[in-house]
Amino acid sequence: MLRTHTCGELRLTDVNKTVELTGWVQTIRDKGGVLWIDLRDRYGITQLLLEDGQTAPELFATARSLGREFVLKATGTVIERKSKNPNIPTGDIEIKVTALDILNAAKLPPFLIEDDTDGGDDLRMKYRYLDLRRNPVRRNLELRHRMAQQTRLYMDGQDFIEVETPVLIKSTPEGARDFVVPSRMNPGEFYALPQSPQTFKQLLMVSGFDRYYQIVKCFRDEDLRADRQPEFTQIDCEMSFVEQEDILNMFEGLIRHLFKAVKGVDLAEVPRMTYADAMRLYGSDKPDTRFDMQFTELKAVQRPGTFDTIDLTSGKGFGVFDSAELVVGINAPGCAHYTRKQLDELTDWIKRPQVGAKGLIYVRYNEDNTLKSSVDKFYSEDDLKKWSVQFNAKPGDLMLIISGDANKARKQLNELRLEMGSRLGLRDPNVFSSLWVLDFPLLEYGEEEQRWFAMHHPFTSPKPEDISLLNSDPGAVRANAYDLVINGTEVGGGSIRIFNRDLQARMFSLLGFSDEEAKAQFGFLMDAFEYGAPPHGGIAFGFDRLCSIFGGADSIRDFIAFPKNNSGRDVMIDSPSTISQAQLNELKIETVATK
Amino acid sequence: MLRTHTCGELRLTDVNKTVELTGWVQTIRDKGGVLWIDLRDRYGITQLLLEDGQTAPELFATARSLGREFVLKATGTVIERKSKNPNIPTGDIEIKVTALDILNAAKLPPFLIEDDTDGGDDLRMKYRYLDLRRNPVRRNLELRHRMAQQTRLYMDGQDFIEVETPVLIKSTPEGARDFVVPSRMNPGEFYALPQSPQTFKQLLMVSGFDRYYQIVKCFRDEDLRADRQPEFTQIDCEMSFVEQEDILNMFEGLIRHLFKAVKGVDLAEVPRMTYADAMRLYGSDKPDTRFDMQFTELKAVQRPGTFDTIDLTSGKGFGVFDSAELVVGINAPGCAHYTRKQLDELTDWIKRPQVGAKGLIYVRYNEDNTLKSSVDKFYSEDDLKKWSVQFNAKPGDLMLIISGDANKARKQLNELRLEMGSRLGLRDPNVFSSLWVLDFPLLEYGEEEQRWFAMHHPFTSPKPEDISLLNSDPGAVRANAYDLVINGTEVGGGSIRIFNRDLQARMFSLLGFSDEEAKAQFGFLMDAFEYGAPPHGGIAFGFDRLCSIFGGADSIRDFIAFPKNNSGRDVMIDSPSTISQAQLNELKIETVATK
Prior knowledge:
alpha+beta, globular
């Protein structure tokens, strides 16, 4: 090694040692007769000292010629610092330099290599290799490293075998769009990159591997919304001879292990909620449970076959509520002081096209126990009192109410709830709240395509007690499917799988596959089910997202070493790019001119 | 869990416990009144017992209806076996069955799920999920799992950070053929799949990551020879502030750790040999050092500027040797008894087109100290005596000699050496011999293309003392490059990299890149070298191959869960395959009809 120690290693106990350090020039302070260099590497910073008169003149001149980010090898003696720096572990010592080799010079970086940089996103992406030098970005990737190591440690301890599944697989029409790879050896044919190793992990269960996992790259050719990447990483897992309860326990164990080992956080036992309850209480299948503010219904949706559904709003002459399928709200604690201006602004916020509510009704529960609402024309204080009881509101609270079509109103109120949570500081990224959401619907109807789609994927099993509904009322069939939600983000999801050929065939048929299509696409899996397939199920975690949540960040991008931008482009290497005509010829493909 | 124990778990100490086991029917033995079922899972085999009269009649009938590979859940009591089976860990007990659930039926598998199967390669590949049930295949993948875990353990302990590099990158013309991926969002442009993460790991060094590793999929669109896969896995590593010696020590440490942890083998210190010596002594840059049999030169190549080069063959009237550039042989110990027929067969073997030698000369060193050769017409016993001294041969040995063009003769003799090693049983797959091969040439000349190619890759640094030869004698420039060879297979290779923009540009120019091409392809790397690149180097191991060597197998295929065949096809899922016109339209590409 060109060094004897790293820049994060030396302490007072090393005083008088002759050492060699290597690293980058973080800063130079030139006080005329004395010159200090902060030398940086991955492990820390160590201060180098050069003193005029005591240091050889050529050496002193060399040191003066250095610039930021120069790569050095410094030889010298460890001495105790006169003025110690308690903020860094090496702050008690410095190196009295006796020799200095410039291993490489550096041009002035296009942005500051500091925790707070002056570089914009585009510049940082183009010079990603410099951005990665900054502590916050490097720490994110170190966190990711620890997450991966600890995941493997846990899985290994639970007898899971890591198996690599292929990357060059087969395109299937179900689900998101595939990236494809033309095959030169089989002209006119294509591989596809996996959106997940789903079928392969199921085959491993048929093979008797019993417990499989993999931290694996997956690919989706989707129009990239903010914070989506065409290639992403999953913790992919599957187990045999299990029921849903076993999966939930096993992977609750993983998450709690990760929180403990990586963050030192004791995560509480993960509560459970059905999909139906999550939609009813939060208007979302991934509620942020760091704060309460559950939905309260003033006029509930009439459920088939029931009569005494709550309705505290109808018949008072307020047409908006009278005609609404659902009147639902949240109670914002301590917000009764909101001014008219604030409430107008909140109303404007929720009426933006991104949320799309028609309006917002409020009820102030004043500290003096009076109630004041924006619908006082229609509802007496007595009516409002009943509402406030329903809301479990207290003096000082503010009730915010939305109405209309049930699904839309819930979706809008979910947005409002999250916004209020943010405004009230209830969504601290360093507080962690998790939730299992269970009993997802098996299918959802695509209005545009006029057919059923698998909500999870076509291999998810229906709940046995709901199988009889598959023909009569497919939308009511619940799946053995579950999501793990942390802080309002779905970090993982999975299901107990179908392991019976007939049921799998019936599922494909429901999804509009002809027998021939099902056989052509998934014949190998259905065949496998005939040779002794065990009951099995699994889960996959979005690893990039999980890391970002552990890192307390909103964006996954800085938890990926070399991410792509929203056009799927790596601006550093300038990819994708054109390829040569010779390559196209070999692959027997042509590009079609675009206007 | 549907089970209380696995099929490999129960012992005498568990007798009288009520247990639930799940697994596959390995065998059924029906002795009329008594029926035994071997129930198998990943963890082992447990014997189930059903006795007529003692077992309920329906249960007995159910058991009789079972077939091989049915999936069962068996409930019962652990009892001591009357006739114990010392060959399996559960052999002292059996389960007296009280309930039996058929979890899934199984058709008769197309081949036997036994260690020695009757299934041919094609059938086993098509039903890979059944092949994976067989112990030898499953054990290979378990070995691979342990190799991966132990690799990460070692690397983690040495402060290496695991960083995932992108899979969708940029096509580059240098090296092997890329797989490409059309970009829908950037029509007419393509990503490429990485042949290795080379440039990214170098950028990570520029970023100061100091020590990087990754177990990562790589891709090469080559015409597949036997035992090549279009996608393969590397242990990819890079370190900063190192010299070659540091890399050799670090990764010798990895290999020795793996041998110890996975195989319980104490690997000897890895010897080192230059490329030049390896070619001279073994005719190969990856010699199998499990056995000796080094080459002996009877007439050496005249080295420039030297005069007293050995020649024990010229001037005796044997034109073949007189006109040969090189006369070289091996000494096969104890083979003097080879019959004329055996020697003729060996001569035929070496004259096959695959080896291509013109002939084979032999000298028998008989037990009675006489020497007998196929060139007695030209060489006296005294001449032969001198040869045998040169060969360090002993009575009973057989010297086998080849001549001709030096490179060709060495290549042919290498084949003969390996063949003799095999015939003499000197290549035991459970014996391990490793070697570092050092000082590879930087460049090799492509006669066809009439230009220089990088022997390793364009980022490999020349030895500083040879840089002056770059213009005058490029072929003589040695690289800071090294390979790790185990049992005659190159399992890893790497180099100290160029980290200076000018030298890198000079290298690209030597390789025939115009400045524009170099900038378009690798501009980002050359730019990075200007912002403070540290000295760095690394290595990559072929993980599939490493596993196969640890597993004592010749083929990598059974160390890959779902391999492709020699046409790059996955016959199980039938991939590659055609994709829909709609997909092609979206991607703005067309396939070109092939005749």
